[in-house]
Amino acid sequence: MKLSQFKFNLPADQVALYPHSSERTLNRADGTSQTFKITRRDEARLMILHRKSGTIEMFNKEVKGEPKEEDYIRFKDVFNYFDEGDTFVLNDTKVFPARLYGTKEKTDAKIEVFLLRELNQEMRLWDVLVEPARKIRIGNKLFFDESGSMVAEVIDNTTSRGRTLRFLYDCPHDEFKKELYALGEAPLPRYIIDNREKEAGEDFAHADADDLENFQTVFADKEGAVTAPGTNIHFSEQMMKMMEIKGIKKAFVTLHCGLGNFHEIEVEDLTKHKMDSEEMHITAEACKIVNETKLAGHHVCAVGASVVKATETAVGTDGLLKEYEGWTNKFIFPPYVFGLADSMLVNFYHPYSTLLMETAAFGGYDLVMEAYDKAVKAGYMFGCFGDAMLILND
Fold it and tell me: Are 45 and 75 within 8 A, CB to CB?
């Protein structure tokens, strides 16, 4: 397929800059009341696509006249479409505070440093991106706190924006990581940071402590992601308990989500696009749960594009999941024959996004693009904090 086939008009005000929140009213005994907002990650909208019949569900019941907000299906309603014995495959990667701000020695120029991965614990070597890159050369030193105790030296250029840093911090590794992360922020995507309201005197908005919690799944476990597995962050503690009560099983795989899905595709012919590699791990335990579910004839639901990428990397020709330790640069776009999951949960994504392309491959290009058109017209929210879609094979 061609890149231009994934163009659609997305209004700027339909890109979610914060997680879904709901208004609650507290009525006091003295007759007064107070209305406030609370974050409810599981109350985002959920659109249902039925792949074989080509039908789309948006509402919990028949709507007469203009639909109201309470008429829409919610993410927490997803279990209505599954039964005991079915399995959800989730991504248990853990996001770390990867975005730091420092200053360059002598000039005091402000520099953004985005941590990608640690290369060597003993030498404190990190693979990073820097902005503005033109100001950062080999041999430069960067300072990250007022005391000057956290300092890094640029020792190599890796890409146009990529650098290798050696942190000059003499202490046990655990203490170093703790101090480094204390200086960092939640690595929210640029489309969020650049469009949030900024404080007076600041060039851009900053993530805060709430963002570090909201940009993390409730089951995060294996550290290594520099962006969240978006669909997975909709799950709440209450939903995890509901799964247990209903007898729906959970299988955890790990794919450390990188920045490759945000890179602009520069070729019209999608077969010529190369994805960045991401580290992934699939255990024997996850394989056992998923494969027993498939062999028993129950449904396997892949939660998020990262899980689909991981399971399609590790599925065998027999349709069963295999153990895996390594990296994947799998790029899924239509047409593609899927080997494992029969249903998929995924967010709504930006035009030209590789995540949209993977969704279209799973749900069928025409049906998914029709769903996206309906979503835009109905005011659904897009992006990692946005609304979601469930694709069923019926």
Answer: yes
Tokens of 164: 């290798």
The residues with which 125 forms a beta bridge, in sequence order, are 120, 166
> Nearest to residue 379, comparing CAs of 79, 24, 66?
66
Amino acid identity of 89? V
Residues 6+ apart with CB under 8 A from 329: 260, 274, 275, 276, 277, 278
Dihedral angle computed from the Cα positions of residues 113, 118, 119 and 125, in that order, rounded to the nearest 10 degrees: 60
Give the tokens for residue 162: 């990529």
CA atoms of 290 and 299, how far apart (whole Å): 9
Cα 112 from Cα 142, distance rounded (Å)? 10
pTM above 0.90, yes or no: yes
**What is d(CA 1, CA 239) in angstroms, rounded to the nearest whole number?**
37
**Distance separating alpha carbons of residues 247 and 360, to the nearest angstrom:** 30
Q: Write out pLDDT tens, residues 254-301.
A: 999 999 888 899 999 999 999 999 999 999 999 999 999 999 999 999
Q: What is the CA radius of gyration of the chain?
A: 22
Residue 323 corresponds to which tokens in the numbers above? 């153990």
DSSP 264: P
Average of pLDDT values for 163-168? Answer: 94
